[in-house]
Amino acid sequence: MNKEKTLLIASLSGLVAVGLGAFGAHGLKDILTANDRIDTFKLAVDYQFYHTLAMLAVGILMNTMDSKLFRYASLCFFVGIIFFSGSLYILALTNIKILGAITPLGGVLFIAGWALLAGGIAVGNKK
Question: pTM of the entire structure?
């Protein structure tokens, strides 16, 4: 993704994370308690925030350094949020345990995103 898309998606992801965190704490509390998934939902929100902030950092780095690896890092973070946090949100709300099998794919994408970010910093050229 280019820097404009990276920053836009990160901004929107932050907005969604705040909204879901607040809604989970108040509007979904009964469902999450009944499913015994408050911690699962909180983990999804936390990891969405961590990787939203990582995407913001990547977008900012794209302004000062030039590396294709940053584009791939931001894509990994974005798709990782969808797979990791998305599967945990659905699991927490539906208690369909098979969805937990998708979560590790998001985790692998997060790891790849961090590796690509490190690689981009190591080999990137300053603008």
Answer: 0.94
CA distance 107 to 60: 23
Q: What is the pLDDT of residues 48-72, one digit of tens each?
A: 999 999 999 999 999 999 899 999 9
Torsion of CA 26, 52, 105, 100, to 10 degrees: -10
Q: Are 54 and 77 in contact (CB under 8 A)?
A: yes
Q: Strand, coil or helix: what is 125?
A: strand
Q: Of 19, 11, 29, which is closest to residue 92 (Cα–Cα)?
A: 29
The residues that bridge with 125 in the sheet, in sequence order, are: 66
CB half-sphere exposure, 112, CA atoms < 13 A: 18
